[in-house]
Inverse folding.
């Protein structure tokens, strides 16, 4: 293979190269010194003499030369009396150069090749390292090329290579590999992570591995199909968290290469009971002997326990959210209230007045009025019946009497005037009877 593109020569079983010119051979003498020998494949006389050059300057004659290990100088030799040229110089590696292909933006999954090259004679061997933030970089390969067939985000970092031969060792500058990739699934943390009490300062933080860096959005799940957008910052801060802030939260991380959503984080704000409310059932038409049910309810986290009291009494009447009084009597009359309590605090309801009159007074009035109306109607109906019956009786007794008197007056005309007087007396009596 030549140094010109396309000029390669092969054969079977291969190409054989014979060098007849002078060559400098390098052999390590010990840990400090190297022995250089001038060698030729030509047949030379025993009296052959060599001249040694250091950086193209004549330094001494002899068949070999001792130099210090790690020297950066160039050494060559020349056969005195020959018509040929000096041997190629031997030298340690120059600082290696590193190239990357492709040189454009690297996306996760791309194929990427790093190549290390250095000018050295004899030819250098190469070693690749990755800087992991420790004092000693991690060895990756001992080839001139470092190949990533499908580069990953974890491959991002600083790489370097070393070139080494018998005369020395040099290390390249670092090359930074920046693999672009979409966000990984974000993680969410809460601070403080312990129990959250109403009024505390709470911070939720969203973070995701992404390159380029992701932007963040916070959402709260309100039970609808679309969560409610809250913030477009990496942190969601509650300076004084309230019970209404309890719920499920999530965040999204997004860059130009993708978008990912975190799992929900549940925020459970604890708080003491609010003032309880009390309801009574039934609320009307309650008579003595009925059952009365009182129900206490409040908002609290954790859930509250309930105790029932009667005003001016130290001992509780009952425990539990529902208090039932069976066979209500006047002794049960009074003011009642309930106490709601959890580990965060306690709260009492307002007084609820329960009395016998409050329970059935209205009903008694309704019943008394109803019976009074019924009694009046019955009396009126009875009087009407009596009046009708009396009127019929009077009519049936009056008609025969008048007929008999008429006959008698015809028989005795002299008594006509007397009969008229008698009739006049009877009329007032009949009127009085009718009345």
């Amino acid at each position: 293979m030549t140094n010109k593109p396309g000029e390669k020569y092969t054969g079977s079983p291969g190409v054989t190269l014979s060098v007849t010119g002078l060559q400098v051979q390098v052999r390590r003498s010990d840990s400090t010194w190297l022995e250089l020998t001038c060698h030729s494949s030509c047949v030379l006389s025993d009296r052959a003499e060599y001249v040694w050059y250091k950086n193209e300057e004549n330094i001494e004659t002899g068949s070999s030369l001792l130099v210090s290990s790690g020297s950066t100088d160039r050494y060559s030799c020349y056969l005195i009396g020959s018509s040929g040229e000096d041997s190629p110089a031997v030298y340690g590696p120059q600082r290696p150069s590193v190239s990357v292909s492709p040189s454009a933006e690297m996306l996760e999954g791309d194929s990427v090749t790093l190549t290390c090259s250095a000018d050295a004679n004899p030819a250098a061997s190469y070693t690749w390292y990755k800087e992991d933030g420790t004092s000693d970089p991690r060895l990756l390969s001992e080839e001139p090329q470092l190949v990533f067939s499908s580069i990953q985000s974890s491959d991002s970092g600083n790489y370097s290579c070393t070139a080494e031969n018998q005369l020395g060792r040099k290390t390249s500058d670092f090359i930074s590999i920046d693999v672009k990739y979409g966000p990984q699934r974000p993680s969410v943390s809460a601070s403080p992570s312990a129990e959250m009490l109403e009024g505390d300062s709470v911070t939720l933080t969203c973070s995701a591995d992404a390159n380029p860096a992701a932007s963040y959005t916070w959402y709260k799940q309100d039970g609808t199909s679309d969560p409610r957008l809250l913030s477009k910052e990496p942190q969601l801060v509650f300076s004084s968290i309230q019970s209404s802030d309890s719920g499920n939260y999530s965040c999204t991380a997004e860059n130009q290469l993708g978008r990912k959503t975190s799992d929900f984080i549940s925020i459970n704000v604890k708080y003491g009971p609010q003032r309880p409310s009390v309801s009574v059932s039934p609320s009307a038409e309650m008579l003595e002997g009925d059952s009365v049910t009182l129900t206490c309810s409040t908002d609290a986290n954790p859930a509250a326990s309930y105790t029932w009291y009667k005003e001016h009494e130290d001992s509780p009447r009952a425990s539990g959210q529902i208090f039932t009084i069976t066979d209500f009597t006047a002794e049960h009359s009074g003011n009642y209230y309930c106490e709601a309590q959890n580990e965060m605090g306690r709260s009492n309801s307002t007084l609820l007045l329960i009395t016998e009159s409050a329970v059935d007074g209205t009903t008694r009035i309704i019943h008394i009025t109803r019976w009074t109306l019924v009694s009046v109607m019955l009396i009126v109906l009875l009087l009407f019946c009596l009046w009708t019956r009396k009127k019929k009786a009077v009519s049936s007794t009056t008609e025969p009497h008048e007929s008999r008197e008429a006959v008698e007056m015809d028989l005795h005309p002299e008594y006509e005037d007397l009969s008229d007087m008698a009739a006049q007396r009877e009329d007032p009596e009949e009127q009085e009877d009718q009345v």
In short: The first strand starts at residue 22 and ends at 28.
